[in-house]
Amino acid sequence: MPNSFLFLAKEATELALKDKKQLMEIEFPTAGLESVPGDGEGGIEMTGSMQLIREFCDIFINPEKATRTRIFFPEANEVKFARQSAFGGASFKLDYLTKPSLFEDFGFVTKVKMADRVKPEDELFLVAYPYFNVNEMLVVEELYNEAVVNTARKLIIFNGELDRIRSGYYPPFFYPKLAALTKSLLPKMETVYYIHNFKGRKGGTLFRCYPGPWKVLRKVRNEYICLHQQEVMPSLKEVALDILPSA
User: What's the rounded Cα separation, in Å, for the pair 241 and 239?
Assistant: First the structure.
């Protein structure tokens, strides 16, 4: 039985599609809905994400559309692993964003040319957790620009940890292309379903379910109460340093 929040994410995505949104983001903690980033070990988090993406696809995509859905994993090894595990027997097209280069030991990967990967019959692209290597999100931007803009296609980024880019985690001086995404790609994106938890005595959750507002919630005796809401996404810093402590 898929996790109940996946049904909420599915409904939110369907509403966004009705509103002609083409670039969407779904983000939630994979190590459990109340976990914070880094609670799970990297590889385990990705495996958890893969399983949840499969469950989401099964409830969101009609079986006859499966072959027109292309799911991009960060690299070719992940595709192999997906076929042997969560995506065994599925008819979705499985693909990858980067491939190892000769300089892999130094952290270099070769970006895959998106125009060569996409097929005319593709209708929906799902990109799975493109945060492991900085090149992955740059390839996603290329995919959006070359294969989605001016078409009827849709692109959903699943657990891309885009907050790292939003928050300036990558210094613009060293990562100018990545930092540029905050002005080019991210403003075009609709966050359709989002959960980010903050730990501590004054902890809480930043939550959004499209088309609703952004809410800051706190769990009190097993119930979530809304402390604050606004139409635009607050920064994580704002939530952690201003909204939660003052509530």
Answer: 6
Instruction: Kindly report whether the peptide bond that precedes residue 245 is cis, defined as omega within 30 degrees of 0.
Output: no
Nearest alpha-carbon partner for 61 in 4, 9, 25, 96 = 9
Distance CA 169, CA 134 (A): 11
Cα-Cα-Cα-Cα dihedral sign, residues 15, 19, 20, 25: negative
What is the pTM assigned to this prediction?
A: 0.91
Residues 6+ apart with CB under 8 A from 48: 30, 31, 40
Burial class (CB in 10 A: 0-12, 13-18, 19+), 66: middle
CA distance 63 to 81: 22
Q: What's the rounded Cα separation, in Å, for the pair 109 and 56?
A: 29
pLDDT in tens, 85-106: 999 999 999 999 987 665 555 5
Task: Give the model confidence (pLDDT) of 166-216 as tens digits.
Answer: 998 888 899 999 999 999 999 999 999 999 999 988 899 999 999 999 999
Please tell me what DSSP assigns to residue 236: H
